[in-house]
Amino acid sequence: MNYLKLIILTSICIAFSLKLHSQTIEVKDSYTKQGVPNVNIQWKSAINKSKGGATTNSKGIATLASTEGIITITASCIGYKTYTDTISTSNLVTIYLEEDILNLEQVTVTGTRTPRSLKETPVLTQLVSRKDISGIKATTVNDILEMEIPSVEMNLHGYGAALSSQGLEGKYTLVLIDGERMAGENDGNVDFSRINAANIEQVEIVKGASSALYGSNAIGSVINIITKKPSKKFEVSASFRYAEPNQKNTSDAEIELHDEQYMRKFLRNWDRQNINSDISVGFKMNSVYSQTYFGYKCRDAYKLFNTKETVKYYPELDSTANEGISTTSTNIFGFADYAFSNKTGFNTKNWSGELRGNFYNHEEFDFERDNKHNIYTNYTAGGFLERNLGQRNTVKISFNHDVYNKYLFNEIDEVKEKSYGNIFNHFRATYSNEQYTNHKLLFGAEIFNEILKSDRFSSAQETHSVNDAVIIIQDEYSVNSKTTIVGGLRSGYHSAHSLHLSPSLTIKVSNGDFNYRVSYARGFRSPTLKELYMNWQHLTLFTIYGDKNLKAETSNYFALSTEYVNISKRLSITGSLSYNSIKNKIGGIWTANQTEYHYKNGYEYSVFNAELLARWKILKSLQVKGGYAYTHIPEDESITLLSTTSPHNLTAQLDYNLTKGWYELNANIALKFIGKKKVRELDIDNNNFYIMEYPNYSLVNININQRFKRNYSLSIGVKNLFSYVAPIHSFYTTPTVGQRFFIAIGYDF
Question: What is the pTM for the complete model shown?
Answer without folding.
Answer: 0.86
